[in-house]
Structure formats: C-alpha cells, structure tokens
Specification:
There is one protein chain. By secondary structure, this protein is α/β, with parallel strands linked by helices. It folds into two domains: about 150 residues, Alpha/beta knot, CATH 3.40.1280.10; about 60 residues, tRNA(m1g37)methyltransferase, domain 2 (Trp Operon Repressor, Chain A), CATH 1.10.1270. It has a five-stranded parallel β-sheet, sandwiched between helices. A hairpin with a 2-residue loop joins strand 8 and strand 9. Helix 7 packs across helix 8. The longest helix is centred in the last third of the chain and has 19 residues. Its main location: cytoplasm. Belongs to the RNA methyltransferase TrmD family. InterPro entries: Alpha/beta_knot_MTases (IPR029028), tRNA_m1G_MeTrfase_C_sf (IPR023148), tRNA_m1G_MeTrfase_TrmD (IPR002649), tRNA_m1G_MTases_N (IPR029026), tRNA_MeTrfase_TRMD/TRM10 (IPR016009). GO terms for molecular function: tRNA (guanine(37)-N1)-methyltransferase activity. Homodimer.
Length: about 230
Amino acid sequence: MSFAASVLTLYPEMFPGALGLSLAGRALEAGTWSLEAIQIRDFATDRHRTVDDTPAGGGAGMVMRADVLAKAIDHASPAGDPRPRLLMSPRGKPLTQARVRELAAGPGAVILCGRFEGVDQRLIEARELEEVSIGDFILSGGEPAALVLLDAVVRLLPDVMGNVVSGEEESFENGLLEHPHYTRPQEFEGRSIPEVLISGNHKKIAEWRRAEAQKLTRERRPDLLQDAKIRQG
C-alpha cells in the first residue's frame, strides 16, 4: 500500500511543484506515493465560489469558512479513512523528525492548507485536525509548508533513498545535529580533510563524528541537548 497524500488548497497548481522532481518525483512516478491536489473552491455553494468571510467579533482580514472546508475534507477523507488530518498552521505543534517518521510509516495524510487569517475553529474541532507548524514564522499560506512536510515524509518511504543508512545518520535522528562532511579533493584552499577521516580507523571515525555532532548541537541547538536530558530523566 503506497503513501497517499490529499492536499486541500486554493492553489492546486502549486502541486506537485518540487515534489515532482528528484527522489520524490521518481517515487511519485513509480507509485511509491500518490498526490491529489483538491481545489477548495469547488465546494463553495455560491456563484462567486466564496470560501472566506469576515471574522466574528471584528478585526482585519478574512477567515476560511467551516461549512465549505467541511465539505472539502469529507470529500477527501470519507468515514473510515485512516489517514491523519493535518492543518498547516503557525500555531501548530512544531514538525519533528519523529513525527515525520510516524507519518511515513502510515497510510498517508490529508493536508489542509490555510490562507487569510486562519480557519474557523469549529472546523478544526469538528474534523479533529492536527495543527502542524514548520517554524516560528508566517507564510502567505499553508502550501509551502505542506510541500516541506511531504518532502520530509516521502524521502523516508521504502526504496526512495538509495542508502537507508543515509536517513538514520542525519540531523535530529539521534537527538543531535549532523556531523561535518568532507570529500575530495583532500586539500581545498589551504584546508585539509581531518586526518582521522582518512585514517581507516572506523572506531575513531565514529567517535570523532559523535564528538563533532555534540559540539555543533551545543553551539547551535542547545535546546536539543536539554530535551534529551529531560527524556532520560
């Protein structure tokens, strides 16, 4: 059973976008995963295909309507669909590599791309949407975030990456940022590859990589180390 993604959006032409290229694109062609981009406006009932309205209580901007979105979600994800329903939102839980792995191990995902000021809260509650954020910043809409999430998931699907170990040694997989990488030439603008990496001593190489990963994490993402300490007790 392949990973099936259904994306609800006002801009279906944004998909597959970059997901149609490289590893994800080849996997899409091979049927390892599938992508359906659904136009939300198709579920509006008025001749203007309206999907938003002014916010209750006043304020700037517009809010996506619960009734229109409910019809779109019910079309994409009828009763019995086991796929999680995600809403790309800056107020959601931060996307983590652990959550990406969970999604990759599942049947797929239904992803709602928000626009304007946001989505009617009643829709989020009624359709049990999981709000997901890709970072502490604001985008014009949820589409770029959905592309990021799907890229992260698809590369972990079986047979997408040529070397399975590649996915196991990356940043966040073991709670640390990834160690530095080097390749030929051995000398570049007066900088040499660290001697340990060309020593052939695999034990020392593993120790060096671990130490460098810890050093980078301590310098750039000390929060990851703190989280690891909390998990360990």
